[in-house]
Amino acid sequence: MNRIYVKMDGRLGNQFFQYAFARRLQSQIGGELILDFTSLNLNAKDGFRGENGIENHLDNFNVIPYRYVDLGNFDKSLVSTIQFGIFNIMRKIKPMTRRKWYVELVEFLDHRLLQAFGIYFLESANPYKYIKLPQKSRDLFVRGWFEGECYFEDIASDIRHELTPKHQLPSKFERLYADLCQNEYICVTIRRGDFATGAYKDRYLICTPTYYYEGVKIIKEKNPQAKIFVCSDDIEWCKKNLDFGFETVFEPEGLPIWEKIRFMSACKHFVLSNSTFSWWCQFLSDYDKKIVVAPSIWRKENPSPREIYNKNWILL
Question: Is pLDDT above 90 for 188?
């Protein structure tokens, strides 16, 4: 049986994108899914998983069975020596996320050459144009961000099912969840954390209170009865600094991340932050008339990500 070996990285939103693309490859050629979470352990502070959200989140959702790999149980036989060697060489010599126009041709040739060896090493801002899906069964080595529905749109309905929480809803949250499902809510995601204070501030701190207010206003004009549900990694900051002027419900304290996903995706409309976690909550919503407002700049880089946007979104 062929193998699809994926180097996992990032928090929940990134992991969902990487899993979804791997599943798209699997639907194309079959094979065993192998997810290597070594990078999460290396990136976690003091090697402790769970620090700042660095942990394997997939096990809390209805994903298909996969083989788990990390530093503790890595088996070299699981990945081609040639693929692993080429990947390590390219990781050192090729530019990563930030791209300029004059490297486009080199990028195209570079990626197509790698894919000839079964390596999907796609860490540029908008790499979908470089992808050529495999046409026959073979071992694949995958590393990238794959931020956009275009990477798995053929199996979007499967992904929506697989990325639902597998844990039963606690009884103490049943009333709130029923309210979110039965009524029209605007989910407003406020991303703070390292966006606001850490090394990523200049690159990621895009969304201001004015942006959130304008997003809510646009949706309220079309849906006057809608209430507001605020979800954030700093909910106390939101309570102290944001006043939407309409009925607002803030997420309860102590929600595990899979419950946040459940609650947020139950909403009908969305004002997103430039966060992959926020992106997935709107995607997992099955409301067919949802309105999604998003920031027109996702990250301050050149070129900026474009594939992460859906055509029907309203950009501010």
Answer: yes
Residue with tokens 């996969």: 66
Q: Which residues lie below 8 Å from residue 287, measured CB to CB, with a gap of 6+?
A: 267, 268, 269
- Work out whether the CA dihedral 48, 52, 58, 61 comes out positive or negative: positive
Cβ atoms of 159 and 23 closer than 8 Å: yes
Listed residue (192, 135, 152, 211) closest to 17, CA to CA? 152
- Looking at the DSSP bridge assignments, the partners of residue 120 are 142
Rg of the Cα atoms in the chain: 20
Q: Could you read off the pLDDT of 46-103 as tens digits, one per residue?
A: 555 555 557 899 999 999 999 999 888 888 888 888 888 888 877 776 654 444 555 5
Contacts of 102 (CB under 8 A, 6+ apart): none
Contact 107, 101 (CB under 8 A): no
